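Student: I would love a firmer grasp of how sequence relates to backbone shape in proteins. I am handing you a single protein, as its sequence and its fold in token form. I am told such tokens are a discrete way to write the fold. I hope you can help me see how the letters and the tokens relate. Take your time, and here it is.
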Amino acid sequence: MNRRLESWQKITLRSGGATHQGKVRANNQDAYAVTDGVFVLTDGMGGHSGGEVASEVAATTVVKLFSEPSRGRKAAERRSRSGLENAVTVANHEVIKRAATNPDLRGMGTTLCAIVAATSQDGAPILAVANVGDSRVYRLTAGALSQVSEDHSLVADLVRAGELSATEAARHPQRNVLTRALGIEVNLAVDTWELAPVAGDRFLLCSDGLFNELDHRTITDALLNFEEPQDAADALTGAAVAAGGHDNVTVLVVDVTEAPETAKVATSEAHTKIQSVVPALPKKRRKIVTWRVSVFFATLLVLAGVVFGSIWYYAQSGWFVGQHEGRVSVFQGRPDGLLWFEPRLAVSGGVSVAELSEHDQDLVAAAIEADSLTAAREVMERLNERSGG
């Protein structure tokens, strides 16, 4: 007796993945996980081992949720765009819970992007895509590579607003500042899409260590020139490391080898993004009292104090490698400063900037951001080694 195939099981996917620490980072905070029709890639952030833990927890949680046995309506709900959104939400909660158990992990977070073979509300086979942060999902179809996901970062917001060009964004000193990530807040907005599966299409999931090193044309050529997804993943990862390897780099290449000819998604739905919306709680009617004006201004003062304190903390919480009096140095703060808070010199006396390669000179001039003082010192040491010092 033949087992009845679910709609999503009629899609055949083949994949290959690769990850590398890079030449500068002390550890690899990227992760990826693959199971039956589920592909997840994460890029962690946080001092010490926090980033590694956050990325691993997020990736394995999503895969585990799709791997658990279920039947009937529950299985159908899981293998859907909303099911993927729910899985990412659960992963976010797991990262937050894990951080709460260990002081060394507090503040850790991770980006996430994923593709899942799924079923639409009308029963058609689809590919569900999710994204939080600046890890990306690309689609290669008919020889053309296009980005499916949207970056959740400060510079991406500025590009969308028309205040920065793509070229300016690629070299902006705050290009790594995220506006959304798992592990930061409980009520996380998750971007999701439904895509029609087309046999012959190739998908690329990657961390920013890839597209910050390689241009669009180079990435496209690699995806076109290697038939096997594993070969393409290896080639892209190797090329990113060879181009500088200034960050961890992780790549997942997913090929659609078979898809039902009837697999279609309505035009209005094929590339439609939806976001989690947390419903507002009903507000209690406030009593009108004679001292309400006093309370109002007292509240404003408290809020002003909180805002000022938050700005100060954010301005002083960063680390970066730049130049001071012609030498590579470590600074605490934000590269461009923030309001009246300027970065302060923390460690000076590194290698002379003039002894660095032209590429490394540009990186130092733009500021190399780090997660901690220890990480920044390690960047200084690597720059010194690469200069021959």
About this structure: Residues 292-316 form the longest helix (25 residues). Confidence is low (pLDDT under 50) at residues 262-293. The radius of gyration is 23 Å. The chain has twelve helices and 14 strands.
